Amino acid sequence: MTPPAMQMEGRAFILGDDIANDGHLMSLEFALSREIDPDVLRHQIFKGLDKTLAGQLQPGDLIVTGRRFAQGNPHIQGFIGLHGAQVGLLTESIPSASYRLAINAGVPLLPNCPDLRTHINHGDRLRVDFETGLVINETSGAQATFAPIPKHARGIIKAGGWRPMFEARLAATRAAQ
Predict the structure, then answer these.
(1) Rg (Cα) of the chain, in Å, rounded?
(2) Is the residue at 1 inside a domain?
(3) Single pTM value for the model
(4) Tens digits of residue pLDDT in 13-69
(5) What is the domain-level CATH number for residue 117?
(6) Which residue in 17, 6, 9, 15 sits closest to 139, CA to CA?
(7) Which of 56, 77, 132, 137 is the most buried (most CB within 10 A)?
(8) At 80, phi and psi to the nearest 5?
(9) In whole angstroms, what is the distance from residue 9 CA to residue 165 CA?
(10) Residue 118 DSSP label
(11) At what angle do helices 77-85 and 96-105 cross, to 10 degrees?
């Protein structure tokens, strides 16, 4: 899979507060079966909230959520699904375990965007620079800047997640021997 872009432009999909990792973001059955194929998981995201949402998402679209996105048990399958769908994530807040899972799965995100949903409507066209934290609502003209994640974490995302980053480092080490 191609590593994600750190600048995205797409439609906003607005979700609420307290989106659970298990059940809302991804069915627990995929964690229990240890499924890790992004092409399988991308079709399963958000089925607990809206059975049609995964089918509506296009690469570059942006999931905009409220507080405590992906709360609960820390399973990576939902984030692998987001990576497979090639979407970005903007949250008002996210638990630390889910924050790490999003980075490790290679999902571009801005994890601390207070009151973001007051400036964005469902379907608005957004342009987001995950390197700088700039969010532009092209529909309304509003814009805001939020703190981007640390540079080392952006490096993991740019590589496509922890696994592709590890494999590249391993290959470079072997080539140098």
Answers:
(1) 16
(2) no
(3) 0.94
(4) 999 999 999 999 999 999 999 999 999 999 999 999 999 999 999 999 999 999 999
(5) 3.20.19.10
(6) 9
(7) 77
(8) -65, -40
(9) 25
(10) G
(11) 40
Structural domain including 18 reads: 7-176
Domain assignment present for residue 166? The answer is yes
> Which residues fall within 8 angstroms of residue 17, CB to CB, at 6 or more apart?
65, 66, 67, 68, 92
Instruction: Give the count of domains, the chain.
Output: 1
The answer as to whether 86 is a domain residue is: yes
- Is residue 118 pLDDT above 70, yes or no? yes
Q: What is the pLDDT of residue 51?
A: 95
Q: Are 60 and 8 in contact (CB under 8 A)?
A: yes
Amino acid at 147: A
Position 128, amino acid: V
Q: Is residue 39 part of a domain?
A: yes
Share the mean pLDDT of the chain.
95
Q: Is the pLDDT of residue 1 over 70?
A: no
**Interatomic CA distance for residues 171 and 98, integer angstroms:** 28
Tokens of 131: 């390197």
pLDDT (average), residues 80-94: 98
> Quick check: 48 and 28 in contact, CB under 8 A?
no
Q: Given this model, what pLDDT does residue 165 score?
A: 87
C-alpha–C-alpha distance, residues 70 and 50, integer Å: 15
Cα maximum dimension of the chain: 55
Strand partners, 128: 8, 135
Q: Say what percent of the chain tops pLDDT 70.
A: 98
